[in-house]
Amino acid sequence: xxxxxxxxxxxxxxxxxxxxxxxxxxxxxxxxxxxxxxxxxxxxxxxxxxxxxxxxxx
Length: 58
Known about the structure:
Number of strands: 0
Low-confidence stretches: none
Distance between the termini: 17 Å
Largest sheet: none
């Protein structure tokens, strides 16, 4: 998979998870979605970096 696709998918998933969490707790969803999206982007970049390192070692 392409790097951009991986990061976008993880960011979307984290944003949706944080949105449903905020709605379940009856809180304003915007800050939760922003923080969830940021964390998702960071996790996605870490995953892409690990995949690149794995491919370079082989």
